[in-house]
Design a protein that fits this description.
The relative contact order is 0.07. The protein has twelve helices and 17 strands. Helix content is about 45%, strand content about 20%. The chain has about 450 residues and is of the alpha+beta class. Strand 6 and strand 7 form a beta hairpin. It has a five-stranded antiparallel β-sheet with strand order 2-1-5-4-3, sandwiched between helices. A five-stranded antiparallel β-sheet has the order 7-6-10-9-8. Strands 12-13-11-16-17 form a five-stranded mixed β-sheet, sandwiched between helices.
């Protein structure tokens, strides 16, 4: 191997070590480096799971081998390095190298070439150096990821605890809990169940569907004293949600192929305990706020108060023969804001939108937070044409609003802009129920969202 070839190879290899931000980048960097000295088809690293002793693809550890023969062959190769001083083995067009820490074999590097490999290839002269460097890099990746995982665990615990600072409705809280846990335990599907007090059965509340209905059977074994249940050799983990030794529900982690390791069990157990505290406190706050009139986050009327004011205003409009309109609006792609920037930023957006709504309305207009990112506004003594103008004014004001999020330390973003979709309806004295007014506005809102968002649609019956 001439000096220039060796230099270019080492330059590429060093670049893979220093510049790779993820496992995929690292594998691509290795392929680019080995292409300087070999005709490379692919590079793969397989590492041993420390709990199950199963070999996993380093790039995609959440995937499982479908080919048992390949799995067995790799295990045979790995075992052949144990107790051996060899740092390279090759078979036809494949080179194997051990991933090791001191004398402990932790995995296998597999390089597949386009053609049969010559035993006199200059590659073998530097294979020991390569093997050690790649082993160090893999260990650094795993060590760094373990630290990041631990940091993310504590951040998840804090975020779950903080939900109740601004949200009290379980219908809003539980999906957020599911998303937080799901983003943390990415190798297993996460389900959130709540126990129905009257029927004494479990109801799936997040996500919308379940892949394996047998999980309901496992849930029947759950009791306040059962603790964590592991089913199917640890492939299904059931973590109780408890309040004062009463069973509220459960967090379920499911993988049809791979079992939970002890670290994941410990993490999920602690997260479920914090989720239990959050759900319990949310219930307590709901009792306190039952007679309250304002939404804690936005300062607008809450949903209960909206229902009361709706009844009052429709009765007044009917009695006095005056027009009454309703606006229903929600923030476009709000879930994307939460997913991208976090729920704290989402709450900031909700507060700013509410502030803008209040600023753009008249003193006798009645704005409310209907739930989640949806707002309802009653416009007494307002014709349908006037209500449409108000809706357009609101839509424009919110579209132009720059929401400052500097305090949340988002690296690439200092401010956000959002848009709203709006539905407008007019009260008709022939309506049998007051609720029909906002239901009609909601239908118009749905039409606005379906036909492009960031627009106003008037309900025409």
């Amino acid at each position: 191997m001439d000096y220039k070839t060796f230099y270019n190879f080492m330059l590429k290899l060093t670049s893979a070590f220093e510049k790779s931000k993820c496992r995929r980048d690292f594998i691509l960097g290795l392929e680019s480096a080995f292409a300087k000295i070999l005709q490379v088809d692919s590079v793969k690293i397989y590492t041993l799971d420390e709990f199950s002793y199963v070999l996993k693809d380093f790039e995609k550890p959440w995937e499982n081998f479908v080919d048992d023969c390949q799995n067995q062959k790799l295990h045979d190769v790995l075992n052949s390095f144990v107790g051996s001083k060899e740092n390279t083995k090759f078979q036809d067009n494949i080179i194997y190298m051990p991933i090791s820490e001191d004398t402990k074999i932790l995995g296998v590097l597999k390089i597949v070439s386009d053609k049969k490999i010559d035993s006199d290839n200059d590659f073998f002269e530097i294979s020991q150096l390569i093997q050690k460097q790649i082993s160090y890099a893999v260990l650094n990746f795993k060590s760094s990821e373990k630290m990041k995982l631990n940091t993310k665990f504590h951040q998840t615990i804090r975020n779950i605890a903080k939900i109740i600072e601004t949200q009290y409705e379980l219908s809003y809280i539980l999906p957020i809990l599911g998303e937080m846990i799901d983003s943390f335990i990415y190798e297993h599907l996460i389900y959130i169940f709540i126990k129905n007090k009257n029927k004494k059965e479990f109801k799936l509340v997040w996500p919308a569907n379940i892949k394996d209905s047998k999980i309901y059977g496992y849930l029947e074994k759950l009791s306040p004293k059962s603790g964590v249940l592991l089913e199917r050799d640890g492939k299904v983990g059931i973590f109780p949600l408890l309040s004062e030794q009463k069973l509220l529900g459960a967090v379920v982690a499911y993988n049809p192929f791979d079992k939970l390791n002890q670290n994941e069990i410990n993490y999920l157990d602690e997260i479920s305990k914090q989720a239990s505290v959050t759900i319990e406190r949310a219930g307590e706050y709901m009792k306190i706020l039952k007679d309250a009139t304002l939404d804690a986050l936005t300062g607008l009327n809450n949903r209960h108060q909206f229902t009361l004011r709706l009844s009052e205003q429709t009765a007044s409009a009917k009695r006095q023969n005056t027009p009454l309109c309703c606006i229903m609006t929600d923030i476009d792609y709000f879930k994307k804001v939460n997913d991208t920037y976090g729920h704290a930023v989402g709450d900031c957006v909700l507060k700013n939108v509410a502030r803008t709504i209040k600023k753009e309305l008249r003193e006798n207009d009645i704005p409310s937070r209907y739930g989640g990112e949806e707002f309802a506004i009653l416009l007494p003594h307002t014709t349908l044409k006037e209500a449409e103008l108000v809706a357009q004014r609101l839509r424009t004001a919110i579209e132009k609003k720059k929401i400052n999020i500097e305090e949340y330390n988002i690296e690439t973003t200092k401010q956000l802009s959002v848009t709203i979709s709006v539905g407008v309806s007019l009260y008709d004295k022939k309506m049998k129920e007051a609720s029909q007014l906002y239901q009609n506005a909601d239908k118009a809102l749905y039409e606005a969202k379906k036909t492009g968002r960031n627009k106003v649609v008037v309900y025409n019956g």
